[in-house]
Write the structure tokens for this entry.
Amino acid sequence: MLGRVKALSLLPDGMHVTTAMVAAYFSVAEQAIRALVHDHRTELETNGYRVLTGAELSDFK
């Protein structure tokens, strides 16, 4: 089983990922990730989830 585990790709800062990156990791559509975030946002935010916007997002472009 461990031989089938793949690495999660990260953005250049080594800390953030995009919705597309998470979807690719789990081999699901981006909409599936968005639905899970919608349903579990409070729990995810408690564990560090946040959406980058404005200047923070511009740093990655």
Notes: The chain has three helices and no strands.
